[in-house]
Amino acid sequence: MKPCIGVLISGSGTNLAALIDAFSGDDAKAAIGVVISNRADAYGLQRAVAAGIPAVHISNAKKSRVDFDRELIATLQAHGVEWVALAGFMRILSPVFLEAFTGRVINIHPSLLPSFPGLDAQEQAFKAGVKITGATVHFVDAGLDTGRIIAQGAVPRFEADTIEALRARILAMEHELFPMVMAAAVSGRLSVEAGCVAIDGAAQALAWQPDKP
Ligand code: GAR
């Protein structure tokens, strides 16, 4: 049996689409067992259905954080999920959730953490006038975007950039970075070396290339 990944989303799901591409087919290192959204209108749910993956809406409205998380846990476990990928999931998970999947919850964030945690990281970076920004894939802990960093991808911010152009450049990097990290995680290729997470024993960083938009 292949390792089973559950993907949590809140929106469009372009990162989900990159994960579906990476984890479909016989040669894939894992399978996506279920996609869950806290928003009924998340387009990512339609992407999951189109790919033949169970798609579940669990509302967080009028529910305590822990009750919502318990529903998430039950649904993920019912689908045999071992690893959880947060692909644009805009909720903070409680310790109850993190204990159910200790060391197996991984998030993608659109900045070079620890810079610009929280909402609209791309706009925060844009407004700060950074020259280089990017994306971070990290283990999730109880803090806001504070978990141990696994890998990062850097992209330039050009003088003529609009926020939309910068956002798109970061997103394209995310689509490379996230499947690469999830494949390494499910294959047991992550380790901690001198306080840093390594993939195959080495630090992993990607850099933007003009021919790979
Ligand atoms: C992505 O940019 C992801 O990094 C970000 O939401 C977007 C989701 O896009 N996540 C966060 O900001 C989490 N703090 P997508 O739905 O097209 O994958």
Q: What brief labels describe this structure?
A:
alpha/beta, Rossmann fold, 6 helices, 2 domains, binds glycinamide ribonucleotide
Summarize the structure.
This protein is of the alpha/beta class. The protein has helices at residues 14-22, 43-50, 65-78, 95-100, 121-128, 163-186; strands at residues 4-9, 31-37, 55-57, 83-86, 105-109, 132-139, 149-156, 190-193, 196-199, 204-207. A hairpin with a 2-residue loop joins strand 8 and strand 9 (196-199).
What does this structure look like?
The protein is α/β, with parallel strands linked by helices and 213 residues long. It folds into two domains: 1-102, Formyl transferase, N-terminal domain (Rossmann fold); 109-213, Formyl transferase, N-terminal domain (Rossmann fold, 3-Layer(aba) Sandwich), CATH 3.40.50. It contains six helices and ten strands, in the order βαβαβαβαβαββαβββ. An eight-stranded mixed beta sheet has the order 3-2-1-4-5-6-7-10, with helices on both faces. A two-stranded antiparallel ribbon has the order 8-9. Helix 1 (14-22) runs parallel beside helix 6 (163-186). The longest helix has 24 residues, at 163-186. The N and C termini lie far apart (35 Å). Glycinamide ribonucleotide binds at residues 9, 11-15, 44, 87-88, 108-110, 121, 171, 174.
